[in-house]
Amino acid sequence: xxxxxxxxxxxxxxxxxxxxxxxxxxxxxxxxxxxxxxxxxxxxxxxxxxxxxxxxxxxxxxxxxxxxxxxxxxxxxxxxxxxxxxxxxxxxxxxxxxxxxxxxxxxxxxxxxxxxxxxxxxxxxxxxxxxxxxxxxxxxxxxxx
Length: 145
Hints:
Blueprint lengths: L1 H13 L6 E5 L5 E4 L9 E3 L25 E5 L4 H12 L5 E4 L4 H9 L7 E4 L2 E4 L3 H8 L3
């Protein structure tokens, strides 16, 4: 039953929504985003794209030894604080992962570009993708079904 609910939720989220997102600067000089801008401001409509990717080829993301464990690939940089936090979290829990530095590794740079990476860390967990790092989201993605 749980799998059906998850599947239904993911199916519903995968459809394009006709919602429009606007960007404007408020009277205090802060950039605001929303689906309905105030009437008295000059708002600009944004063209947003869904964060999708093609899973890496099996040779790139080396699977872990046990088949029930999902392969984890981390695309990072040396200066990224969230990358360090993610790698520390994985190491503390003995979660095997493959790391590619998108600035120093040719393969990392190539894969990151192919994945349309827009920020680091970019973390692949099995067939799922996470940009940035959240412990709770990672745990959800890494948990076996």
